[in-house]
Amino acid sequence: MEVGWIDTPEEWTMFFLMCYCVAGTITFLAATFFILVTGTLGTGLLNRTRGLMKEQVTPTLENVRVTSENVRDVSREAKSTATFVSDYAVLPVIRIYATAAGVRRFVSVFTTRPRR
Fold this sequence. Notes:
By secondary structure, the chain is an all-alpha fold. The chain has 2 domains: 8-78; 79-116. The chain has 2 helices and no strands. The protein is elongated, with a radius of gyration of 40 Å.
């Protein structure tokens, strides 16, 4: 098999070996460039995120801390949280379920036949 300047199998082997080396070198350089660009962009994004955290999140956390202290002070003056939740959330639900259970029992007493 003779194609141009390559006429022996050894020359074909060397040709493919050289092509493989060139392709590997180009791939290595492209990967290195990609990693450098990605690292640079990632570092810039991280720095920008840190600045955003300092500028916006820290004051927000301070406002949350002040608000929680205010709520804590108000709840000490009024009822405790457990009493408040019990009075306005739990007791009405218990009353509704108790009434429903009583009605259900009342209906079952009158609808079942007595045993003989």
